[in-house]
Amino acid sequence: MYPIVEKKVLSENVKLLKIKAPLVAKKALPGQFIILRIDEKGERIPLTIADSNRKEGTVTIIFLEVGKTTKQLGTLRVGDFLENFVGPLGMPSEVKKYGTVVCVGGGVGIAPLYPIVKALKEAGNHIISILGAKTKDLLLLEKEIEAYSDEFYIATDDGSKGHKGFVSDVLQKVIDTQNVNMVMAIGPIIMMKVVSNLTKKYDIKTLVSLNPIMVDGTGMCGGCRVSIDGKTKFACVHGPEFDGHKVDYDNLMLRNRRFIHAEGEACKLAGAQ
Amino acid sequence: MSVRKTKHEMPEQPPQERIKNFKEVPYGYIKEIAIEEAKRCLQCKNKPCMKGCPVEIDIPGFITCIAQGDFDKAAEIIKAKNNLPAISGRVCPYESQCEWECTLKKIGEPVGIGRLERFIADYEREKGKKPPKKPKSTGKKVAVVGSGPAGLTCAGDLARMGHAVTVFEALHDPGGVLMYGIPEFRLPKAIVKSEVEYVKSLGVAINYDVVVGKTIDVKELMEEYDAVFIGTGAGLPNWLNIPGENLDGVYSANEFLTRVNMMKAYKFPEYDTPVKIGRIVATFGAGNVAMDCARTSLRLGAEKSYILYRRTEAEMPARAEEIEHAKQEGVIFKLLTNPIRFIGDEKGILKEVEYLKMQLGEPDDSGRRRPVPIPGSEEKIAIDTALVAIGQSPNPLIPQTMKELKIGKHGNIIADDDGRTSVPGIFAGGDIATGAATVILAMGAGKRAARAIDTYLKNK
Question: What is the ipTM of this complex?
């Protein structure tokens, strides 16, 4: 059992939980994820690690309440327990000195971007961060990420903060004005697709972090398979980060909708209880 | 008095009833029938049946006790060699092992050894198992990675030798393939849990949610423990590698069975994990896992459940009993067919599979006749779900993080018959060493490794 030691409501549908899981915290590296299960009837869901603290033995997750499990997770309080919390899973980000790195985060994807930004900065990179959200209230970890960024931009769909429009508009401007060595993009699939299409034109190395449906997270079920350059890879053991120019985003979007009907049913039932 | 030529039948749920539920198919022998069946045993002096047993059970010994009505003694004899008899008594391919060697086969059917093992295991479980006396502690510590049949057997045997054993399990339940792979109607999960409880009662500790190779690595285990046994199984699903395999509706057998068995998707929405199969399901492959998939689909409400296999029934790797059960339940076998592509609708949802008809040609390396496509024989059938059950490869997580371990060309950890790997103190057995095989072979490997580990610890 894994106790919740801290909880923050970051926006209406986005919550932060700090979980005591010393073995996971000891090994967690930027880019890796965990799988949790709330109770014995629960589903196993993957969440990318937003932060970890070896000394405290804690791991932080930030999640958007989209389905039955994340909504239930959002109702838990400090002192409650998770039945299972496994990790760290997946391959860590390749942290090294690239030169100028643009870190693009969209929506709740900003959360897993944070430890990567931190690590890339500490590795001596010039960090340009671009964070995007529908509206300013949905922006996450602004101050935290800004603290590790040499340049910092915001884009909101409604223009309530920063550039009115998409993160890709800002990225275009950055590419137009300076030499970019690498782009790291984490966010909605459509955002990662648009960013990858843009950087491909300029042949800029781009990494994206994928979050497909998983069951075990150890390479056993193949539910998380993604098509990379026409080859089948498992996000849980080969990823979750992949070359953004080689991902079949349309197939990923399709596969992430596999259980959308059941999800609706489960949410409705949970709401009725 | 002449010996009865056939085994006593084991009563079963009728097919039309059982495809509507997940309850176990055979009910098992009652006392009187078990005694009668045991009396068929000729008590051969050379005990040929024992040659066929990977876990070395004194088969004539326990059968004599059953014939005499001494079930407790029978249980004791089985337990001396096998910590998990309720499991092996259900899933062992005894027809090709102990029963294959039975002298009675010369005049008819062999003794129902598997059924008798199951009878005793169930008798003991219902009565309440009592753990044997704790042996004197050796002061040695062993880590066992994976709580499947190899790991549980190895752990149980080591504990009985007096070593302190800790099992590390990646998932939230113990049992490995016994829990996520084999369906409830063939191996009830309450039975797996009860067998695991017995292993724990021997003094074995099980730590869940620990992915060795990620949460902790083998080198760290070596610092804390005197020896390590790796029994991580064959987890990685093989694919057909044909177009359309990533469409919505195509599952690996592992994903499908894990959702249904371990995550209890058949009880959705009481349990949160869903599974979606539609009306028509096609399973590819013809091993036990394929039969499990096809039969599970019927229980989830599929109107049609096909098995597509590129050879004929004679070459099917599944146990005869599983094939028979599948047929009784209405699984449709499309033999000599080889899928060439999956076809989806405009939204990317699976709707058809196209396949070629095959004929059998010359024997291949496996000794089975090689299937050869018949040109121009393409056909399509409408399906909602495809389940790919064509085997698994060893899980790469430990080999990836432990470069010193010698790895075979299929990704298996190279180990000798007693489980010794290229690194002293590290042992491996079961599917991770041999590639996908059976539960009982994994148990046998766990058993031999436990003995080798004991010897290693004594000489250390």
Answer: 0.92
Residue-wise pLDDT tens digits, B406-437: 999 888 999 999 999 999 999 999 999 988 88
Q: pLDDT tens digit string along A122-146?
A: 999 999 999 999 999 889 999 999 9
CA distance A23 to chain B (A): 6
CB contact under 8 A, B214 and A87: yes
Instruction: Kindly report whether the peptide bond that precedes residue A88 is cis, defined as omega within 30 degrees of 0.
Output: yes
Report how far apart, in Å, the C-alpha atoms of A266 and of each of A6, A66, A74, A271, B422 are. 27, 12, 16, 8, 50
Contacts of B267 (CB under 8 A, 6+ apart): none
Paired strand residues for A232: A227
In the block, tokens 């997270």 appear at A217
pTM, to two decimals? 0.93
Place of tokens 């894990």: B258
User: At residue A117, what is the residue type?
Assistant: V
B211, B245, B270 member nearest A218 (Cβ): B211
* B interface test, pick of A19, A52, A220, A256 with most B CB neighbours within 10 Å: A220
Q: Which of residues 131-150 of A touch B (CB under 8 A)?
A: none
Selecting from B263, B272, B396 the residue whose C-beta is nearest the C-beta of A219 gives B396
What's the CA gap between B276 and A265, in Å, rounded? 13
Q: How far apart are CA B90 and CA B104, in angstroms?
A: 22
Instruction: Measure the CA dihedral A43/A44/A48/A54, to 10°.
Output: 120
**CA B338, CA B334: separation in Å to the nearest integer?**
10
Q: Is B20 on the interface with A (CB under 8 A)?
A: no
Each residue's pLDDT tens digit, A144-183: 999 999 999 999 999 999 999 999 999 999 999 999 999 9
Closest-CA distance, B319 to chain A, in angstroms, reads 24
Helix, strand, or coil here: B13? coil
Nearest C-alpha of chain B: how many angstroms from A38? 10
Tokens (6 digits) for B204: 């074995």
Residue where the block lists tokens 């008594």 = B89
